[in-house]
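Batch job 17 of 40 flagged for manual review because the log was empty.
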Amino acid sequence: MQATPLAVFEQIAACYPEREAIHVAGHSESFDTLSRRAAAMARMFSAEGVEPGRHVLISAPNSVAVAAAVPAIWSLGAIPAFLSPNVLAERRAEVIARLDPGLILTEDVLESAPAPGETILNGAAKASEIGSVVFTSGSTGVPKGVEQKATTLLDGARRVAAYQGYAEEERILCPVPWSHDYGWGQLLSCLTLGKTLVLPETQSAAAVCEAIGSARPTLVAGVPSFFANLLFGVSDIARTDIGSIRRLTSTGSRFSPELLEAVGETFPKATAWLNYGLTETFRTACLTPALQAEAPESIGRAIPSVTVAACAPDGRLLAPEEEGELVHFGPGMFHGYFADAERSTSARRRAGENGHALPEDAMGVATGDLGVIDGAGRIHLTGRMDRQIKSLDVGINLDEVEKALRGSGLLTNVAVISEPHRLLGNKIIAHCVVKPGTEPRDVKRFAKREMTKYLQPREFVITEALPTTAAGKIDYRALGRKTG
């Protein structure tokens, strides 16, 4: 019988009852107490009508209650589905309509959750094949629900811990929301590996520094924009005792050389493991400490058991040094997009005849990233298949930003570009031709009122006309030179 995340959590709670599971704002919750809290919540969810196979939508900030809710949901044979509480109301409503959850857990609902009971969790219901659904941010259209099998979640957590060398009693500080796949990965490390999860009281740099000093984490897991804000923004990290930290991990966009250097200077006794992967692939590659000295401009090599290949437009897998769309083959691949078989199929690629020792019928997941794999197996990103960027480590399609601004009715033309930014990763810039009688502040007010936070341009450039190419199309390159 295959192990499940729930069975492993129950085993951890039974074998290590006093081990600290969650530490937040001075409050410590053992695995035994977390299991008893989950058991009480399972009874509450069952009374609310949650049945096997149904989804429970979690749209709340990180908390002890959310951590307990996950195994409680699993114990009923139901499926936890994560959606950021910051998603716009319209898109949130669309997700709820499609998902039809048996229960919606918001911060207000969780405040009334029961206290730990007398009994520990006992998952009697048949486990669901699907272990979780993580909805994307909704910054590039209606949020996609990425389904992962329960067995994939457990295997992924174990593989990440193995190749990054987690200690037996690792203490992981996680400021990343659990509605983000990397944050969800850290919660999995707690629930299925028995690691202690340290939660800062808020996501602010001040709260993170306080948590580092008081809770003594051994590992800090964050996205690049978090580390940039901690090291380049206003924070107390220089006055914080960081002696407990041995390891830093990250995923999302690439670290700039400046940020990587700052990490080394601030945390000289810690090693940094810079991961690459999609919500659909769990983890794909890692720029290990050794590779940072060897090829810092790369995203490293594929992690153990994973093959990364470049794919040509006609579907052929390419040889080393040839540019193509990067495709992930091997463990970690998503089960599919919730209620979207067509999109699930379009995201997959068949290996076919290839030089990568892959079976011809092997299926992989297309990343949308263009890249080259050199002769040493190091992966180099060269661009995107679309106009997608990362800002605050959220994937954003610039065409989506343009579409939203055009819908304002305030502009006769608009072009959106991006430029590298120290804290954001990339800054969104909107070049706008406004209609007569429209004030620039009207455009800014529209963006703040109607657009998802991630999509909102950080800079608006009001101009009389946009540059065009010989074919009469917007000349984005000219705009980039003009902005730079």
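Reviewer: the log was empty due to a logging misconfiguration, but the result itself is present. DSSP finds 15 helices and 25 strands in the chain. Unflagging and moving on to job 18.
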